[in-house]
């Protein structure tokens, strides 16, 4: 009497089969989330895309918020008192103010890694600890993919601003290349230099409106050998005074910058808020003008 061969199931095959089924099932559930499904709860009062759900972004686009702000900061040395994320902290405050001033914009995650000098051998800011640099081509490739992602989701005016002068060339290159590649598409990229260059470091506003007079009276990135000034310190203080080491400096009797006392801290924070509003007004005006012009700059 002949015997019938029975299939043999090896444990590894069973495990792989279960894993494959689970993977397919998970992908099916993900694909089954209807892109047109209504949002089941109220949204959050934020303009930062990374703090929003995909449904909140979708609905904001449908409501006309088709401008996206892509801001570039950096991680670099800023002297003995200010944390290395100076530019990123400033942008945390200014981008929100710009978006709310416009009323039609959302803010993409801040691009924190930018060219800061050669890595090997170290040059520029890379000579100092805490600095993180990327190559120019890396920076431009990252910006290109971020902007292209936003365009794919329906943003039609994508704005590039930078809080550091070293970021300018990359933003200009990406805006020019994408505008040419997109041709007749409705989306445009706008590089907005005014955010950084119009009354750079708010030097005139500090003197004329806030009666803050720094020494030496030179509107440059570095005074008294510190890569810091009242403009940066006060804006950062609105985000977190610890980023300018307020408590430690007060304890050491060093709570000043360029001859200006930063005490009381509450006054410095108040001035920082006014500076944030000032930079937002400048930038929102420039963005509106760029969009009205049509082709991206």
What does the model show?
There is one protein chain. Helix content is 46%, strand content 8%. It is globular, with a radius of gyration of 25 Å. The protein is α/β, with parallel strands linked by helices and 297 residues long. It has a single domain (49-293), classed as Rossmann fold. The chain is built from ten helices and six strands, in the order ααβαβαβαβααααββα. α3 (86-102) packs across α10 (265-293), α4 (136-153) crosses α5 (168-182) and α8 (230-239) crosses α10. The longest helix has 29 residues, at 265-293.
Distance between the termini: 86 Å
**CATH third-level topology:** Rossmann fold
Total beta strand runs? 6
Counting DSSP H or I runs of 4 or more residues, the number of helices is 10
Radius of gyration: 25 Å
Class from secondary-structure proportions: alpha/beta
Strand content: 5-15%
Estimate the helix proportion, in percent: 40-55%
Task: Name the shape in a single word.
Answer: globular
CATH architecture: 3-Layer(aba) Sandwich
Unreliable runs, pLDDT <50, ≥5 residues? 12-16
Question: Can you lay out the helices and strands and say which pair or pack?
Answer:
Layout: H1 11-31, H2 54-62, E1 67-72, H3 86-102, E2 105-107, H4 136-153, E3 157-162, H5 168-182, E4 188-191, H6 194-197, H7 203-208, H8 230-239, H9 246-252, E5 256-257, E6 260-261, H10 265-293
Parallel strand pairs: 1-2, 1-3, 3-4
Antiparallel strand pairs: 5-6
Helix pairs in contact: 3-8, 3-10, 4-5, 8-10
């Amino acid at each position: 009497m002949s015997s019938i061969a029975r299939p043999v199931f090896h444990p590894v095959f069973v495990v792989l089969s279960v894993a494959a089924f689970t993977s397919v099932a998970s992908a099916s559930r993900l694909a089954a989330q209807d892109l047109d499904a209504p949002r089941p709860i109220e949204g959050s009062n934020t303009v930062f895309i990374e703090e929003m759900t995909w449904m909140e972004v979708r609905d904001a686009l449908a409501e006309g918020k088709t401008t996206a702000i892509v801001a570039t900061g950096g991680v670099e040395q800023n002297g003995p008192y200010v944390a290395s994320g100076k530019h990123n902290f400033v942008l945390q405050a200014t981008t929100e103010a710009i978006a709310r001033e416009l009323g039609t914009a959302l803010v993409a995650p801040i691009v924190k890694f930018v060219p800061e000098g050669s890595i090997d051998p170290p040059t520029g800011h890379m000579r100092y600890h805490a600095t993180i640099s990327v190559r120019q081509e890396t920076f431009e490739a990252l910006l290109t993919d971020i902007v292209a992602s936003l365009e794919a989701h329906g943003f039609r005016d994508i704005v590039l601003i930078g809080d550091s002068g070293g970021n300018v060339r990359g933003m200009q290159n990406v805006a020019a290349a994408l505008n040419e590649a997109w041709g007749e598409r409705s989306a445009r990229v706008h590089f907005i230099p005014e955010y950084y260059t119009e009354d750079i470091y708010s030097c005139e506003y500090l003197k004329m409106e806030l009666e803050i007079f720094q020494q030496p009276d030179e509107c440059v990135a570095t005074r008294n050998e510190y890569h810091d000034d009242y403009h940066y310190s006060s804006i950062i203080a609105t985000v977190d005074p610890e980023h300018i080491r307020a408590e430690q400096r007060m304890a050491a009797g060093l709570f000043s910058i360029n001859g200006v006392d930063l005490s009381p801290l509450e006054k410095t924070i108040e001035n920082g808020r006014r500076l944030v509003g000032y930079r937002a007004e400048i930038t929102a005006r420039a963005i509106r003008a760029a969009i009205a012009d049509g082709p991206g700059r």
